[in-house]
Automatic annotation (TrEMBL):
Protein name: Acyl dehydratase
Organism this protein belongs to: Geodermatophilus nigrescens
InterPro entries: Fatty_acid_synthase, HotDog_dom_sf, MaoC-like_dom
SUPFAM superfamilies listed in its UniProt record: Thioesterase/thiol ester dehydrase-isomerase
One GO CC term, this protein: fatty acid synthase complex
GO biological process: fatty acid biosynthetic process
A GO term, aspect molecular function: fatty acid synthase activity
Family note: Belongs to the enoyl-CoA hydratase/isomerase family.
Domain of life: Bacteria
Annotated ranges, domain MaoC-like: 19-108
Length: 142
């Protein structure tokens, strides 16, 4: 974990370090086992395309978790994340190859709030497309 930023050292516009995550079909299998979400749209191209998807997609909660990690890594404490919300705007399509899909998470402090808290606005993309919209986290800083 990184050193936790102090509220006095953070201003609107402060950028979080960019994180890039590679998501493969093997990751989807592991996540399905851990989460219990065995929906075949996360592992079967036939089922995924049969319901109108472009192919196998990553679990939305996996994508959401990757974005949250950028915030908790920056904050230096997972317990500092006091509120988190997103809207799913596009699925992360994970091809059946050794490369998988890339999920990029960028964050910026959008507001300094009372009580040593800040609002972090996140931009989460895959394949050049925004996959989460209105992604925001409230973080309690030291």
């Amino acid at each position: 974990m990184s050193a936790r930023p102090a509220a006095t050292d953070v201003a609107v516009g402060t950028e979080l370090p960019e994180q890039v995550h590679r998501v493969t079909r093997a990751d989807l299998v592991r996540y399905a086992g851990a989460s219990g979400d065995l929906n075949p749209i996360h592992w079967s191209d036939r089922v995924a395309t049969g319901v109108g998807l472009p192919g196998v997609i990553a679990h939305g909660m996996l994508t959401m978790g990757l974005a949250a990690r950028a915030v908790t890594d920056w904050a230096g404490d997972p317990g500092a994340l006091v509120e988190y919300q997103v809207r799913f705007s596009r699925p992360v399509v994970v091809p059946d190859d050794d490369t998988g899909a890339e999920v990029t998470v960028r964050g910026k402090v959008g507001a300094v709030l009372d009580g040593g808290r800040v609002r972090v606005d996140l931009t989460v993309t895959s394949g050049g497309e925004k996959v989460l919209s209105l992604a925001r986290a409230t973080v309690a800083l030291a």
